[in-house]
Design goal:
The protein is mainly alpha-helical and about 170 residues long. It has one domain. The chain is about 50% helix and about 5% strand. The protein has 7 helices and 2 strands. A two-stranded antiparallel ribbon has the order 1-2. The longest helix is centred in the middle third of the chain and has 20 residues. The radius of gyration is 15 Å and the shape is globular.
């Protein structure tokens, strides 16, 4: 049985140094990136909202926070770990392969791999420590993170797929 972490997802973003030298430009380009395709009858945000039983507005907020996470993954000198909410956006985006690997990948200038935990001894402590570092980096770059997305109760906003609760 996989471990179930209290505040964060059991995943790490693993990256190599970004090819984009200007951090301000990188931040702007990531935050301006649109996953929803204009005019799509069933856009990414609606699919995400349906799958998670979120309002479209909450799904859009979660997507914006996901993009902030991707920025952190690109610029931080440490592994970053998402909240449960952000991790669900990431999982959904990964199945939109062209959008994730090509469009976003071209902006970021490097690959960002989803490295899930495998229930190894010590994983819980590793992910919890990485999550604290992620939150500290978030505060440095963006200010205080929204509690409904990043706070200790964020997993209540997620319909877990394939995970067993404690």
């Amino acid at each position: 049985m996989a471990a179930y972490f209290p505040d964060c997802a059991a995943a790490t973003a693993r990256t190599a140094p970004s090819k984009v030298a200007d951090i301000t430009t990188l931040r702007r380009r990531i935050l301006e990136f649109r996953i929803d395709k204009q005019g799509a009858p069933y856009p990414f945000s609606m699919r995400l909202a349906d799958e998670q039983d979120w309002s479209v507005e909450f799904a859009q907020q979660a997507i914006e926070e996901y993009k902030r996470f991707i920025f952190l993954a690109a610029v931080c000198d440490h592994p970053v770990t998402p909240s449960f909410v952000v991790d669900e956006v990431w999982h959904t985006h990964l199945i939109f392969t062209r959008s994730y690997w090509e469009e976003l990948g071209d902006i970021v200038g490097k690959l960002i791999h989803h490295d899930p935990g495998q229930g190894e001894p010590g994983d819980e402590a590793v992910f919890a420590n990485q999550y604290l570092k992620t939150l500290a980096s978030y505060r440095k770059h963006f200010g205080e993170p929204p509690a409904e997305i990043w706070g200790s109760e964020n997993r209540k906003n997620v319909i877990a797929k394939g995970r067993k609760a404690p």
